[in-house]
Design goal:
The chain is mainly alpha-helical. The chain has three helices and no strands. Helix 1 packs antiparallel against helix 2 and helix 1 packs parallel to helix 3.
Amino acid sequence: MSEEQSAADLPLPGGNFRLMVQRMAYQGLLGLGVLENPVTGTTGVNLPSAKMVLDDLRMLKEKTAGNLDDEEREHLEGIVRDLESAYAKASEANTDEPVT
């Protein structure tokens, strides 16, 4: 007989660089209104939140330069590039927030 498990019973993954970058990117996409907030079930643009995540990922890219393997570096660069593009589009749609 097997016992029913909930998400709280399962171990959380950690110590994986790509997964960490992906989790940060997810937060950026939430701030850009690209993804639905799983708690509220809504989408909404929060450019300051998205910019904070993007700035953190840019800093991570700068601080880890030369210390990542090719796969990690390409993943981080791709995430930053994609978020920069999405942020620029969202900023244009919300003209009260400057694009940086």
